[in-house]
Amino acid sequence: MSAPVCPCGSGRPYEACCEPYHLGAAAPTAEALMRSRYSSFALGLAPYLLRTWHPETRPAELDLDDGMTWRALQLVDVVRGGADDAEGVVEFRASFRDASGAVGRLHERSRFARVDGRWTYVDGDVLD
């Protein structure tokens, strides 16, 4: 039996992709953090989302919609956000199905910054 594939769309097993970040390892790039955050939405891991949110923009709490099913992630653009950068941008499209069965898509250009050596999600502009 093969290991479950990571929700982020990498095609890699979850245990070798986003799970280490969910368990506390630092994401090496803004893209890796963005993928792990998408996976945490798909898996309902609100504490991880809050932990990886920039302290200046982090909400006090986060309630995930249990009826939302995140179906696919498509990366559109990555600007900086590498191992030697302090900031980066990742643009993505994420498709979902809500509790009523309606399908939709979130298209966002997200900003990331390092805080104490770890990538954090700052904010994003919803596009479309």
UniProtKB/TrEMBL annotation:
It comes from the Bacteria. Residues 29-124 form the YchJ-like middle NTF2-like domain. InterPro entries: NTF2-like_dom_sf, SEC_C_motif, YchJ-like, YchJ-like_M. Coiled coil: none annotated. It holds the Pfam family SEC-C. Belongs to the UPF0225 family. This is UPF0225 protein GCM10025881_03040. It comes from Pseudolysinimonas kribbensis. The lineage of its organism: Bacteria, Bacillati, Actinomycetota, Actinomycetes, Micrococcales.
